Amino acid sequence: MRIDSATRDQLQEWEKELSAQYQRICQHELSLDITRGKPSAEQLHLSDRLDGILNGDFRAADGTDTRNYGGLEGLVCARELGADILQVPTEEVLAGGNSSLTLMYHAVLTGYLFGFAGSKPWRELQSPKFLCPVPGYDRHFSICEQLGIGMVTVPMTDSGPDMDAVEEQIRNDRDIIGIWCVPKFSNPTGVTYSKETVDRLAQLGQFANPGFRIFWDNAYAIHDLEQQVNLPSIRAATQEHDTADSVLQFASTSKVTHAGAGVAFVSASTANLASLKKQMQAMTIGPDKVNQLRHSRFFAEFTMLREHMQKHAQILKPKFECVLNQLESAFGDSDLGGWEKPKGGYFVSFNTRPGCAAAVVKLAADAGVKLTPAGATFPYGKDPEDRNIRIAPSFPPLEELDTAMSVFVLCVKLASVRQQLEKL
User: Fold this and answer.
1) Is pLDDT above 90 for 417?
2) Residue 95: strand pairing partners
3) What span, in angstroms and rounded, lies between the C-alpha atoms of 342 and 37?
4) Per its UniProt record, what Pfam families does this chain match (predicted)?
5) Per-residue model confidence as pLDDT tens digits over 183-213
6) Burial (0-12, 13-18, 19+ Cβ within 10 Å), 283
7) What are phi and psi of 217, to 5 degrees?
8) What b/e readout covers 120-130, taking b as 16+ CB neighbours within 10 angstroms?
9) pLDDT tens, 160-184?
């Protein structure tokens, strides 16, 4: 279906046919949800051996009784696991609780209230701002919004953020104190940053505000669907350009083991870790070391973690294929939208014709299929072109996902045809 060249009569006929199909679907009273990137029950079952794995032995290899207080940095064995995931030295890793988002919030709050490594607090700037590659991750934006930190969008390309735009913004505005990055299988586009992009990001610390920090949320560091996709090391790049203090890296096992009971990690320079730990001492006596020990025994070797993630991929791959096949079949030769073909991660990013995303989401909701709200992948929930929709294939069973995608495809067609008719 190509509607740019269609006549009014053709569009009216299509609208009639599509509306009839839509009404029939609404009668089925569906209740399907593809809003968020949650692991499925089948994926969660892969880690059920965590339950009871300690078998009453709560002492870590170094003799630490994990049931007790203390250990702000986390267990050494847990930090080693985080170091393997992020490919950094163990001494540069702090292992926390179950949520990397919590660590990111704490890091932003530290920068805002106290500053990092001797730089002044962000709150003392006239108008502190973060750069936000879009489309991006809504929870990153929520942190900034809650703290009153401004957000400046920069476009995502097929190799990462538009670095010309990033560099221009930072050179022209000393109040820019951060940038959000999901560098591998970006949320939601699935893009992995190129070597050039990583290298240019590493150089930002040479001319940015001294308090500027890159928030490197490597949430999908090991979430490859088929062959491993290599992400260039931001640590190595910052070492080369003498900007190690400019980066904070984050990861977790939330989409590796049990999503609500994983282990989160932050990796940073010695100076940045000192800033984080100074504030953490006032808010906690230490993380859940029992859970950290469980994970360390579950993944006694990094090869075990790789094998575990291959099992995840076997579950996820058919779901991504379902989404991509439906999109290709419906829109491969049309002018109704475009999408990315990710090689890993948890999302598929779809762009409707400008001005159609909100209508598609509403039509789908009325038909019983919940989608991520239109605009969620932009700061303040406002997509200026009203076109991006994030699809999350992981949670529903394959049969339900297939049904949900059929409804999605129909809603995209119907919304597009109706919009075009309104223009004529």
Assistant:
1) yes
2) 265
3) 14
4) Asp_aminotransf
5) 999 999 999 999 999 999 999 999 999 999 9
6) exposed
7) -85, 90
8) ebbeebeebbb
9) 999 999 999 999 999 999 999 999 9
Span(s) in the chain for CATH 3.40.640.10 = 61-300
> Rounded mean pLDDT of the chain?
97
Confidence at 1, pLDDT banded by 50, 70, 90:
confident
Q: Do 156 and 165 form a contact (C-beta atoms < 8 A)?
A: no
Query: Per DSSP, which regions of 87-208 are E strands?
Result: 93-95, 129-134, 150-157, 160-161, 176-181
Mean pLDDT score, 370-399: 97
- CB atoms closer than 10 angstroms to residue 4: 9
Beta carbons within 10 angstroms of residue 81's beta carbon: 27
396: preceding bond cis by omega (within 30 degrees): no
CATH number assigned to the domain covering 61-300: 3.40.640.10
Instruction: Match domain 8-43+305-423 to its CATH number in 3.30.365.10, 3.90.1150.10, 3.40.50.300, 3.40.50.920.
Output: 3.90.1150.10
Residue 117: which of 234, 212, 215, 214 has the closest Cα?
212
Report the length, in residues, of the chain.
424
Q: What is the pLDDT of residues 129-162, one digit of tens each?
A: 999 999 999 999 999 999 999 999 999 999 999 9
Other Cβ atoms closer than 10 A to 334: 15
Tokens linked to 54? 């300690």
Where does CATH 3.90.1150.10 sit in the chain?
A: 8-43+305-423
How many angstroms separate the CA atoms of 319 and 396, rounded?
Answer: 9
For 308-373, list the strands marked E by DSSP.
337-339, 348-352, 369-370
Name residue 160's beta-bridge partners.
Answer: 157, 158
Q: Quote the pLDDT of residue 424.
A: 86
Pairing of strands 247-252, 213-217: parallel
Q: What is the pLDDT of residue 297?
A: 98
